[in-house]
Amino acid sequence: MNKVEHIGIAVSDIKIAGDIYEKLLNTTVYKTERVEQEGVETAFLQTGPNKIELLQATHEDSAIAKFIAKKGEGIHHIAFDVDDIEAEMQRLKQEGFVLLSDKPKLGADNKLVCFVHPKSANGVLVELCQSVDNR
C-alpha cells in the first residue's frame, strides 16, 4: 500500500457537508460524482496531498444510508492507494482478511475499489483503490 488515498465521511446532506468542509479545509469541492451501483453521491475535497470523500446515500437501502441509521454521520472508511489491486486483494486474503468482493469494482474518482470487512481490520472499513489509469 502506497499511501492514504482518502478518508470517506458519511453525510446526510452532501451540500451542507460540502459547505462545512470547504470552510474547514479552506478549499473547494473539486468533483462530485454519482456511483449508481453503490447508491451514493460523492463529493471530493483536497488540501495538499490529503483528500476527503463525502458520501450521501441516494436510496434508503444503500450501505451509506444503513451506516448513518446505525452510527450517525461520521467517518465511514479509510482508503489506501495500491499499484495492483488484484495482487493486493490476493495478498490480504492469504493474510486472513475478509474482502467484501471477489473482484475489484469501478468506484468514484476513476478508481477500481475493493473493501476489507471491518471485522478483520480491527473495526475499520478499509478500501483499496487503484487508479484506472494505472492498469
UniProtKB/TrEMBL annotation:
The keyword Cell inner membrane does not apply. It comes from the Bacteria. It holds the Pfam family Glyoxalase_4. Keywords: Isomerase, Metal-binding. Its EC number is 5.1.99.1. One of its GO terms (molecular function) is methylmalonyl-CoA epimerase activity. Residues 3-131 form the VOC domain. NCBIfam families: metmalonyl_epim. Belongs to the methylmalonyl-CoA epimerase family. PANTHER family: METHYLMALONYL-COA EPIMERASE, METHYLMALONYL-COA EPIMERASE, MITOCHONDRIAL. This is Methylmalonyl-CoA epimerase. It comes from Mucilaginibacter sabulilitoris.
